[in-house]
Protein backbone atom coordinates (compact mmCIF):
# COMPACT_ATOMS: atom_id res chain seq x y z
CA UNK A 1 0.00 0.00 0.00
CA UNK A 2 1.42 3.47 -0.88
CA UNK A 3 2.44 5.52 2.17
CA UNK A 4 0.08 8.13 3.58
CA UNK A 5 2.97 10.06 5.19
CA UNK A 6 6.29 11.06 3.63
CA UNK A 7 8.85 12.71 5.89
CA UNK A 8 11.84 14.14 4.02
CA UNK A 9 12.57 16.85 6.57
CA UNK A 10 16.19 17.54 7.55
CA UNK A 11 17.57 15.41 4.73
CA UNK A 12 19.51 18.11 2.86
CA UNK A 13 17.19 18.11 -0.16
CA UNK A 14 17.92 20.64 -2.87
CA UNK A 15 15.11 19.46 -5.14
CA UNK A 16 11.92 17.48 -4.60
CA UNK A 17 12.22 13.99 -6.09
CA UNK A 18 9.52 13.50 -8.77
CA UNK A 19 9.28 9.86 -7.66
CA UNK A 20 6.98 10.87 -4.82
CA UNK A 21 4.33 11.80 -7.39
CA UNK A 22 3.47 8.11 -7.38
CA UNK A 23 2.04 8.51 -3.86
CA UNK A 24 -1.22 10.06 -4.97
CA UNK A 25 -2.94 9.29 -1.65
CA UNK A 26 -0.54 11.27 0.54
CA UNK A 27 -2.06 12.80 3.67
CA UNK A 28 1.08 14.29 5.23
CA UNK A 29 4.19 15.66 3.50
CA UNK A 30 7.15 17.03 5.47
CA UNK A 31 9.86 18.86 3.52
CA UNK A 32 11.05 21.17 6.29
CA UNK A 33 14.64 22.19 7.15
CA UNK A 34 16.15 21.41 3.77
CA UNK A 35 17.92 23.49 1.10
CA UNK A 36 15.02 23.90 -1.30
CA UNK A 37 14.93 27.20 -3.21
CA UNK A 38 11.91 26.37 -5.35
CA UNK A 39 9.02 23.93 -5.45
CA UNK A 40 7.42 22.08 -8.36
CA UNK A 41 3.90 23.02 -9.43
CA UNK A 42 2.88 19.37 -9.21
CA UNK A 43 2.74 19.62 -5.40
CA UNK A 44 -0.78 20.88 -6.05
CA UNK A 45 -1.67 17.42 -7.37
CA UNK A 46 -1.64 15.94 -3.86
CA UNK A 47 -5.24 16.96 -3.35
CA UNK A 48 -5.69 14.64 -0.34
CA UNK A 49 -2.98 16.34 1.75
CA UNK A 50 -3.94 17.33 5.28
CA UNK A 51 -0.51 18.55 6.47
CA UNK A 52 2.23 20.27 4.48
CA UNK A 53 5.41 21.50 6.19
CA UNK A 54 7.81 23.58 4.08
CA UNK A 55 9.41 25.62 6.87
CA UNK A 56 13.00 26.63 7.62
CA UNK A 57 14.79 26.73 4.29
CA UNK A 58 15.73 29.22 1.52
CA UNK A 59 12.52 28.98 -0.51
CA UNK A 60 11.95 32.20 -2.43
CA UNK A 61 8.34 31.63 -3.55
CA UNK A 62 5.38 29.34 -3.09
CA UNK A 63 3.65 27.85 -6.14
CA UNK A 64 0.12 29.07 -6.83
CA UNK A 65 -0.83 25.40 -7.32
CA UNK A 66 -0.98 25.01 -3.51
CA UNK A 67 -4.44 26.53 -3.76
CA UNK A 68 -5.66 23.21 -5.19
CA UNK A 69 -5.07 21.43 -1.86
CA UNK A 70 -8.72 21.62 -0.85
CA UNK A 71 -8.35 19.17 2.06
CA UNK A 72 -5.25 20.81 3.57
CA UNK A 73 -5.69 21.59 7.27
CA UNK A 74 -2.18 22.61 8.40
CA UNK A 75 0.26 24.67 6.33
CA UNK A 76 3.71 25.55 7.72
CA UNK A 77 5.66 28.12 5.67
CA UNK A 78 7.75 29.82 8.37
CA UNK A 79 11.35 31.01 8.15
CA UNK A 80 11.62 31.02 4.37
CA UNK A 81 12.77 33.83 2.07
CA UNK A 82 9.37 34.67 0.63
CA UNK A 83 8.15 38.24 0.20
CA UNK A 84 4.54 37.33 -0.52
CA UNK A 85 1.93 34.63 -0.12
CA UNK A 86 0.02 33.57 -3.24
CA UNK A 87 -3.58 34.74 -3.52
CA UNK A 88 -4.52 31.13 -4.23
CA UNK A 89 -4.09 30.27 -0.54
CA UNK A 90 -7.52 31.78 -0.07
CA UNK A 91 -8.90 28.70 -1.83
CA UNK A 92 -7.75 26.35 0.96
CA UNK A 93 -11.27 25.89 2.28
CA UNK A 94 -10.30 23.24 4.90
CA UNK A 95 -7.33 25.13 6.38
CA UNK A 96 -7.38 25.45 10.17
CA UNK A 97 -3.74 26.53 10.81
CA UNK A 98 -1.43 28.80 8.84
CA UNK A 99 2.07 29.59 10.10
CA UNK A 100 3.95 32.10 7.94
CA UNK A 101 6.30 33.60 10.52
CA UNK A 102 9.82 34.91 10.07
CA UNK A 103 9.55 35.83 6.40
CA UNK A 104 9.81 39.15 4.54
CA UNK A 105 6.09 39.73 4.01
CA UNK A 106 5.14 43.39 3.58
CA UNK A 107 1.49 42.52 2.91
CA UNK A 108 -0.79 39.51 3.00
CA UNK A 109 -3.50 38.53 0.52
CA UNK A 110 -7.04 39.76 1.07
CA UNK A 111 -8.17 36.34 -0.17
CA UNK A 112 -7.21 34.76 3.17
CA UNK A 113 -10.37 36.31 4.56
CA UNK A 114 -12.25 33.48 2.83
CA UNK A 115 -10.69 30.84 5.10
CA UNK A 116 -13.85 30.18 7.08
CA UNK A 117 -12.34 27.27 9.06
CA UNK A 118 -9.08 28.97 10.02
CA UNK A 119 -8.54 28.72 13.79
CA UNK A 120 -4.95 29.93 14.20
CA UNK A 121 -2.99 32.43 12.11
CA UNK A 122 0.66 33.19 12.86
CA UNK A 123 2.29 36.08 10.99
CA UNK A 124 4.83 37.34 13.49
CA UNK A 125 8.33 38.39 12.49
CA UNK A 126 7.45 39.94 9.12
CA UNK A 127 7.26 43.52 7.78
CA UNK A 128 3.51 44.06 7.79
CA UNK A 129 2.14 47.56 8.26
CA UNK A 130 -1.55 46.64 8.11
CA UNK A 131 -4.01 43.84 7.43
CA UNK A 132 -6.83 43.63 4.87
CA UNK A 133 -10.36 44.49 6.02
CA UNK A 134 -11.42 41.02 4.83
CA UNK A 135 -9.65 39.43 7.82
CA UNK A 136 -12.63 40.43 9.92
CA UNK A 137 -14.48 37.67 8.07
CA UNK A 138 -12.38 34.90 9.65
CA UNK A 139 -15.36 33.68 11.64
CA UNK A 140 -13.63 30.66 13.27
CA UNK A 141 -10.36 32.43 14.19
CA UNK A 142 -9.28 31.87 17.81
CA UNK A 143 -5.61 32.88 17.79
CA UNK A 144 -3.91 35.68 15.88
CA UNK A 145 -0.18 36.26 16.40
CA UNK A 146 1.21 39.46 14.84
CA UNK A 147 4.27 40.18 16.99
CA UNK A 148 7.31 41.99 15.58
CA UNK A 149 5.79 43.69 12.57
CA UNK A 150 5.17 47.41 11.92
CA UNK A 151 1.37 47.43 12.20
CA UNK A 152 -0.09 50.85 13.09
CA UNK A 153 -3.78 49.97 13.28
CA UNK A 154 -6.15 47.05 12.96
CA UNK A 155 -9.06 46.81 10.53
CA UNK A 156 -12.35 48.21 11.79
CA UNK A 157 -13.90 44.85 10.88
CA UNK A 158 -12.05 43.08 13.71
CA UNK A 159 -15.07 43.41 15.97
CA UNK A 160 -16.53 40.56 13.88
CA UNK A 161 -13.93 38.08 15.20
CA UNK A 162 -16.30 36.83 17.87
CA UNK A 163 -14.40 33.54 18.41
CA UNK A 164 -11.01 35.22 18.97
CA UNK A 165 -9.34 34.16 22.23
CA UNK A 166 -5.72 35.28 21.78
CA UNK A 167 -4.39 38.41 20.06
CA UNK A 168 -0.70 39.21 20.26
CA UNK A 169 0.45 42.58 18.89
CA UNK A 170 3.74 42.84 20.77
CA UNK A 171 6.43 45.05 19.22
CA UNK A 172 4.41 46.79 16.53
CA UNK A 173 3.69 50.48 15.85
CA UNK A 174 0.12 50.77 17.17
CA UNK A 175 -0.55 54.39 18.16
CA UNK A 176 -4.24 54.23 19.12
CA UNK A 177 -5.93 51.54 21.17
CA UNK A 178 -8.10 49.44 18.80
CA UNK A 179 -11.50 49.98 20.45
CA UNK A 180 -13.09 47.41 18.14
CA UNK A 181 -11.36 44.76 20.27
CA UNK A 182 -13.46 45.77 23.27
CA UNK A 183 -16.48 44.27 21.49
CA UNK A 184 -14.96 40.78 21.32
CA UNK A 185 -16.87 38.60 23.80
CA UNK A 186 -14.39 35.71 24.08
CA UNK A 187 -11.02 37.47 24.06
CA UNK A 188 -8.84 36.06 26.86
CA UNK A 189 -5.27 37.19 26.15
CA UNK A 190 -4.39 40.61 24.71
CA UNK A 191 -0.71 41.52 24.33
CA UNK A 192 0.06 45.15 23.43
CA UNK A 193 3.62 45.31 24.72
CA UNK A 194 6.15 47.64 23.10
CA UNK A 195 3.84 49.68 20.89
CA UNK A 196 3.45 53.46 20.55
CA UNK A 197 0.35 53.82 22.69
CA UNK A 198 0.40 56.81 25.04
CA UNK A 199 -3.14 56.56 26.39
CA UNK A 200 -6.08 54.20 26.65
CA UNK A 201 -9.68 55.21 25.92
CA UNK A 202 -12.48 55.25 28.45
CA UNK A 203 -14.53 52.07 28.05
CA UNK A 204 -17.51 50.59 29.90
CA UNK A 205 -16.77 48.66 33.14
CA UNK A 206 -17.93 45.36 31.58
CA UNK A 207 -15.38 45.58 28.77
CA UNK A 208 -13.62 42.30 27.91
CA UNK A 209 -15.84 39.98 29.96
CA UNK A 210 -13.57 36.93 29.57
CA UNK A 211 -10.14 38.59 29.52
CA UNK A 212 -7.58 36.72 31.65
CA UNK A 213 -4.38 38.54 30.64
CA UNK A 214 -3.71 42.10 29.46
CA UNK A 215 -0.08 43.01 28.79
CA UNK A 216 0.66 46.75 28.71
CA UNK A 217 4.38 46.64 29.44
CA UNK A 218 6.86 48.96 27.70
CA UNK A 219 4.16 51.48 26.80
CA UNK A 220 4.33 55.17 27.64
CA UNK A 221 1.16 55.18 29.74
CA UNK A 222 1.25 57.68 32.61
CA UNK A 223 -2.04 56.28 33.89
CA UNK A 224 -4.75 53.80 32.96
CA UNK A 225 -8.54 54.28 32.95
CA UNK A 226 -10.91 52.69 35.45
CA UNK A 227 -11.87 49.74 33.24
CA UNK A 228 -8.30 48.43 33.54
CA UNK A 229 -8.59 48.49 37.33
CA UNK A 230 -11.97 46.78 36.99
CA UNK A 231 -10.27 43.98 35.06
CA UNK A 232 -7.75 43.54 37.86
CA UNK A 233 -10.50 43.41 40.45
CA UNK A 234 -12.22 40.70 38.39
CA UNK A 235 -9.03 38.60 38.47
CA UNK A 236 -7.50 39.50 35.10
CA UNK A 237 -3.69 39.63 35.17
CA UNK A 238 -2.69 43.13 34.02
CA UNK A 239 1.01 43.64 33.38
CA UNK A 240 2.41 47.18 33.39
CA UNK A 241 5.91 48.60 33.42
CA UNK A 242 6.70 50.16 36.77
CA UNK A 243 6.77 53.95 36.75
From TrEMBL:
Keywords: Leucine-rich repeat, Repeat. GO terms for cellular component: cytoplasm. This is Leucine-rich repeat domain-containing protein. Residues 77-229 form the Disease resistance R13L4/SHOC-2-like LRR domain. Pfam families: LRR_1, LRR_14.
Amino acid sequence: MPPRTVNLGRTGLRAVDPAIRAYAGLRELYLHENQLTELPDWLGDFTGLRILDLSHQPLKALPTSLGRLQQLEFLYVSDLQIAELPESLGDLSSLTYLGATGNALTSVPASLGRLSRLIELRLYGNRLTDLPETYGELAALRELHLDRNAIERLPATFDQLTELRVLSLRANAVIEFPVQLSRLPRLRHLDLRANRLTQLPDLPPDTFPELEKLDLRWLNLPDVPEWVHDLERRGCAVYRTAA
